[in-house]
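[job 4417] fold queue: 2 targets
>>> target A
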Amino acid sequence: MSNKKHDFEFDSGAAFFSNFENSLIEEGAFKVKLTLDKSETMMSLHFHITGSVQLICDRTLEPFDYPINIKQKLIFKFGDQDEVLTDEIEIIKRDTQQINIAQYIYEFIGLAIPMKKLHPKLAKGHFEENEEGILVYSSGTTGEVDSESTPDSDEPMDPRWQILKNLKDN
């Protein structure tokens, strides 16, 4: 490769993820735009990954598409031996003919996925009734209980609770 900028584009999907053992991602479609800037001493790789991956909601077990839009940078410096310096900088031998970037793309996508996978309907704060009429999730209540709606509000309060209520009111 000559010392200049080189542009590459890759499209991929489920076949890409099937190449990785124990992959957390099975379905998805994405596009990678890679700009490789090569000089005498190093190569700078700029990744722009867009697309979506199919995830399973942790609460409802319903599949949904999670959008991916990632910009990452890797630097490969030329040296005498292969060595990883940081997450973004690696040293490679000068006579290296090929660099497999598939693992880097997979890791970038994997790191973009949130630990808690929630369906977009849940992220908005409500979830409608499903076909069977069962309410799956609703955030209509704030967790506070109105004193009017508590059962047996005519009965005197336990003194232990009254002390705690006084602390809350102060």
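>>> target B
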Amino acid sequence: MAVCVAVIAKENYPLYIRSVPTENELKFHYMVHTSLDVVDEKISAMGKALVDQRELYLGLLYPTEDYKVYGYVTNSRVKFVMVVDSSNTALRDNEIRSMFRKLHNSYTDVMCNPFYNPGDRIQSRTFDSMVTSMMIQVC
């Protein structure tokens, strides 16, 4: 079950963070921000090969006892971080990859909105409902 989805700007500030259990919201914010170090390490390690690829799925960033953190980076260096409940063993890498593609497509729709200022927090109802449906779908 996906418990947290975050969109992080190129400059490493959050554009959007949504988590399911609201009592642990601060814990998920911490997990997302600590995963940014791992994302930066993976990007710098891949270097030139990452620029040539169209798929920028980073895979599992790090596991904890209760959760697994996955990452994805766009060509414009916007980062998507997803925290998944580790008790859900039915969730495969292909499904996580498709969830990131869906998230990326929805983010592209938000960016194409002429009333959205790039760099502002994402406050789109359609984006929010897509993230909610994605979290419910994985449950």
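[job 4417] complete. Note on B: The two ends are 5 Å apart (CA to CA).
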